[in-house]
User: Fold this.
Amino acid sequence: MKRFPKIRMPHPSQPDYKIVMAALNRQAEMDVGFRLKMDEINEKLPHFALTRSQGGSGFIVAETLRGYFIEYLNRLTLHGQFSLPTSFNVVQSFLSYSKSLLAFDLREEREHLLRFYEYFDWYTANSFPDQPLALTDILPEGIVYAYNGISPLDDFVLETDNSKLRILGVGMVRHGHDLSAIIIAGENPPFPSDEDIRKELKIPDSSPYPGKEGLRSEPSLNTKDRYVSELPGHSRVIMLARYDLQDSTFDVRYVNLDVGAGYMVLTDDRTIYHNENDRDEMLPFSIENLPRYSSLFSALASLLYLPAFFVDHGARIVETKFATDLHTKSRRTLVNKAIKTLGLNQVPFFRTMRCLSGIYPDRSKAVLTIDPPAMDFESSGYWRPLPNGEVGQTKDGTPIVGQTWVKRTETWKAQSLSSFVISRTPCLSSGEDPGWIYIMRSGSHHDDIYKIGLTRRTTEERAKELSGSTGVPTGFEVLFSWVVGDCAKFEQELHRRLKHLRINRQREFFRGNLQEIVKAVSEMVPP
Assistant:
């Protein structure tokens, strides 16, 4: 059996963490004003963390970014800025720095819902010119655009030699000509396997890197936590990348594989390895296994035109609101304290989603070959993040705060994006009464009301039927669906578990937090 390298969180070349922290502690002891300011920050931080972590829509991109936000906040407050992981190299673009709280904050989000096979139908029809620079006219600078897949089990799947990947969501943010992007997918079968993780992968209890000595993995996490709730049997895969829209290039990619208690990082960014042992052990493993995710990387590049797709289909867009976790807990003491401390405008009870509705593409297009945009690998250098306030420089020498362009001195092998195949094979389940369990919502209903039921046909057909018979102005949209072997028995048990959320015993409508409902279903669906 192949042995996997131990997981380590690489560390950029920075000053010694202990020296910096000692200087800050001395300043706090001597400066009364500084100490009072820190006391004020410490009072606000718990409320800040609550409103950001529980103020999202509940969809995959928002939840992923909030996962990074909480991780970074914990590391900053407990271990300092030198403890941040490699994901920060890209995810920093999705965050802004709050000088008043000395912490990173989430940027403004504009969220969308769609079926990705609709986008690929549009993309392969050459409806938009292959000109990445045109995105600068569509994407406002510094705003996160999030695209979440509706009912991922019923969408296209990326075929690879070793597994199948289902796309869950895509996020992107632009700063000048630079575009940072993230794609979240589920992989089946998972890599590495659960068995290999238990036998071979050992996340160290401590880190050898300065500033990260105190980091520990959460003891309650295990391999069960690596699976995506919307996709039974699929482990979480997160890919991060950066693009230059002006030059049509990309400079690095990171693949974060969820292994339960942490992430295994595969990357061709050699600059994160700062000693010979890491380069000898981890870099060859990354280079060997990165091709497994080439199709996902090509898919991410192909999905960069999602903003143009929504502009092109503007007449079909329906805006609808979803309740956040803060709304379902709006009467709780902690939320009220957060409002008093931070202000009502910092406590989001609802999130607006832009949804595409009304048209379902032809299912006869079961297989598509996708050619990604013509983008080349940038071999001349890479961006390195800098501590807050430090000034670096761009490729042409222009001063820039927070990052700097570093020229490469080693020789890199030329890389390019390759075509990939997506297929749409219906998921079938064996059983006495196979069918689909679905979660639907109409924009005409309250923000936290969902219809949960079953169908033995396609979820699309059921949504059309409900939209036509109920007469609601915006119709029903399928948010999530799962295939099960005995749908009637499954639905009965699910409704029993969710009875505390049911509005009327005679109808299949439930009022509550969307992620709570999704979790209840996923716990019942076999992997």
